[in-house]
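queue> pop job 88
queue> type: inverse folding (structure -> sequence)
queue> payload:
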């Protein structure tokens, strides 16, 4: 995400390397490079110019304290301006209604249906809500089927009327059903088109008038850049939507939509979505996004994703096993499954400061754990619970069963033993620390 923009900005900041202070002369080249980087990222030129003019005005004459270099100061100024451009603070979703009605709108292919499923899952898991999905796309039969499949995966009911060809009636019927059955959130997935047309706009406006939604979320494919911003303007003029959702941020996006859509339509970005996994939906935090754009990582989001996936009771049980040096392959496999639910592996690594740049050219597949899982699945229940019994004869059988070379099995076993040794050492250090006098 934003790899090219990040590199271009880093290159611009290097223009100030070795400078003792920021002046109009030495800042000119840096600001010009920042503007070029933004335009290449598909940011409208007038917005890019306004942005860099503000950066220049803030930077010129700014005192550089002894512990900070001009380059570091410029990074801070640019970060602050990026945060301002993208909305400064996060924007909560309105769930005040009973039920709260959320209307999903956007062009065909923007990811509306997938987002609807992700949002239902997010509200169920994180907000403890009882959502109802509504299939109001009457033109694309696959959309109804897709929503049905998603609803089964996240165990959230879906309202589908296959014979009804009136989206307004479907939405009104679903709202009545929700009230009768105790659903406190209704998520309505509407039809999209390949381009903006009057029929689509009229239909979605009619649905809005019929159900009076608390939220209208405009879903936009972030890979479409300024086209996405122009589409958002057209939708906003008709629907007056309440927030924006950026999808496909894990793709080859230049970042223009993420940077300027808030500025252009004056509506907050509420969520960002990456990949097909139903757990990969994040609240949009302008400051965290600015940090990622500038290559600073995003540890806060990484920790939050981990907390969502790692059950507290299970974590305590695991901690006890580690303390007793009884961590086994069943535990290891369970941890792998939880990590996989956190999202795209490359994206997760990119949240660690300094790692994103190191892995940007490396192809890290989501299937990276498949070989390890195959080896663990080829073990007997007894072997998984007691790794110490796995001798060379058993290793040969595991290699054959998993379709792996014996050297891969031996390497994996060695890494597992090293990990257990490290856990044991850390456990001892922790125990010693707890016994240290004066420790609070």
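queue> result:
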């Amino acid at each position: 995400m934003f790899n090219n923009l990040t590199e271009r900005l880093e290159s611009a900041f290097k223009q100030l390397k070795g400078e003792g202070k920021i002046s109009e002369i030495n800042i000119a080249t840096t600001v010009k490079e920042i503007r070029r980087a933004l335009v290449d990222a598909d940011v409208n030129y007038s917005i890019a110019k306004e942005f860099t003019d503000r950066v220049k005005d803030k930077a010129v004459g700014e005192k550089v304290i002894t512990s900070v270099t001009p380059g570091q100061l410029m990074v801070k100024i640019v970060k602050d301006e990026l945060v301002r451009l993208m909305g400064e603070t996060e924007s909560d979703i309105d769930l005040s209604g009973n039920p709260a009605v959320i209307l999903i709108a956007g062009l065909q292919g923007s990811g509306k249906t997938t987002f609807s499923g992700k949002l239902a899952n997010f509200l169920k898991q994180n907000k403890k809500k009882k959502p109802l999905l509504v299939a109001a796309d009457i033109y694309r039969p696959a959309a109804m089927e897709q929503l049905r499949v998603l609803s089964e995966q996240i165990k959230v009911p879906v309202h589908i009327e296959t014979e009804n060809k009136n989206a307004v009636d479907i939405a009104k019927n679903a709202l009545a059903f929700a009230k009768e059955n105790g659903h406190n959130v209704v998520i309505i997935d509407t039809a999209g088109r390949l381009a903006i047309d009057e029929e689509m706009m009229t239909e979605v406006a009619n649905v809005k008038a019929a159900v009076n939604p608390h939220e209208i979320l405009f879903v936009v494919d972030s890979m479409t850049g300024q086209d996405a911003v122009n589409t958002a303007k057209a939708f906003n003029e008709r629907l007056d939507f309440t927030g924006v959702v950026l999808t496909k941020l894990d793709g080859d996006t230049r970042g223009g939509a993420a940077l300027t859509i808030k500025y252009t339509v004056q509506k907050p970005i509420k969520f960002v979505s990456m990949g097909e996994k139903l757990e990969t939906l994040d609240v949009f935090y302008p400051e965290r996004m600015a940090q990622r754009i500038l290559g600073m990582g995003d540890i806060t989001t990484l920790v939050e994703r981990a907390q969502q996936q790692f059950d507290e009771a299970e974590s305590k049980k695991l901690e006890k096993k580690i303390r007793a040096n009884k961590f086994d392959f069943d535990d290891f496999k369970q941890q792998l499954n939880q990590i996989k639910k956190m999202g795209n592996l490359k994206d997760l690594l990119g949240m660690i400061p300094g790692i994103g740049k190191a892995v940007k050219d490396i192809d890290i597949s989501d299937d990276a754990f498949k070989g390890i899982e195959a080896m663990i699945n080829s073990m007997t229940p007894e072997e998984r619970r007691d790794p110490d019994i796995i001798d060379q004869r058993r290793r040969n059988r595991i290699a054959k069963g998993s379709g792996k070379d014996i050297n891969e099995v031996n390497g994996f076993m060695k890494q597992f033993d090293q990990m257990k040794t490290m856990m044991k050492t850390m456990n001892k250090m922790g125990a010693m620390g707890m016994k240290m006098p004066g420790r609070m």
